[in-house]
Prior knowledge:
Layout: E1 22-27, E2 30-35, E3 46-49, H1 64-85, E4 88-90, E5 95-97, H2 115-119, E6 123-130, E7 133-140, E8 162-168, H3 189-195, E9 201-207, E10 259-263, H4 280-286, E11 289-297, H5 299-312, E12 316-325, H6 333-343, E13 347-349, H7 351-357
Parallel strand pairs: 8-9, 8-11, 9-10, 11-12, 12-13
Antiparallel strand pairs: 1-2, 2-3, 4-5, 6-7
Helix pairs in contact: 3-7, 5-6
Amino acid sequence: MVRSERPKRGHGFCAEVVRGRLTPRRCDRKLFVTDLAPQSSSPRPVDRPVHDDAMEPGPEGPSAVEAVKGANCREERLLGDVLGCGRIVDDEIGGTVGPGPVVAEEGLEVRSRSGLGAAHPGAFLAARSCHGVPTIRASARKKSIRRPTRAPVREVPTIRSVDALLIVDFQNDFTPGGALPVAEGDEIAGPINSLLDGFDLVIATRDWHCADHGSFAGVEVDSAEWRGADPPSIWPVHCVEGTPGAELHPDLEQAKVDVVIDKGQDPNSQGYSGFQDTQLGRLLRERGVDRLFVAGLATDYCVKNTVLDARREGFDVTVVEDAVRGVDVEPGDSERALEEMERAGAHLATSGEVLAAR
């Protein structure tokens, strides 16, 4: 039987290992696995406790009795090798110990598992050389089980990608009844509102012009100072800062808009793009935005220029087709604008397709 007390000499407790079948038995309500040698002249059992707590099952899986049945073959093969040829692998020196009788040695530290140990980590067998004599040792553990060493799992920080919805210039002056109305411009409210809850970040831009902005008809502009995409003085007065026409359309669920960015404040440029002379690009990068979904007015001017600049900035861009409308100064301008955006690498999708993919 395995003894926990240390003798006067040696290294701890010992057990004599003999050939025989493994059988389970209980003692003081604890389950033991016992090796018996009925053929031996002086058989000495080797008892090894096995975890068998029904309320707190161990990691081994099958019951102790089932493990004993499956382990007998492996135990016999191991013991047969030891008893038959006397050559034992010494896991401290990495080689075999020479031939000789198998004897018990006390208190030898467990170094490897037997077949039973593989099925039940509560039982162990190990072999080594002690004072030049091949020995085999048995040791038992309960609860505190030696498990294979695993490399620690290292958490690798990752940056989560963020999708943003950008609503371009959905303002009163650009919808029916406004100063520069886009046909059916108010109808984009429904598709836009359906998307608001599906995005990590929602941004709206506004044209926010001064009263003497160079894009307004009748305003004199120094051609040397003008840097707009189109000639100056071609548009009616619209979206003047602080006026009702410059406010976001009332049908837009504005409480779900996270950020409003005003653009077109330089009197010497139309300011079509939401990126021109604004902090939009920096904001998107700071928020970790990778993909930008664009809706708003008008397809062939502010939407187009914003999308093209977004592509230049390196963002993945999708234009929500049913959430944009165009001015179409020339018939087909909106269709040509969409084609130009596609050539620049933007994707086209309806609001329903966007929602279905999220």
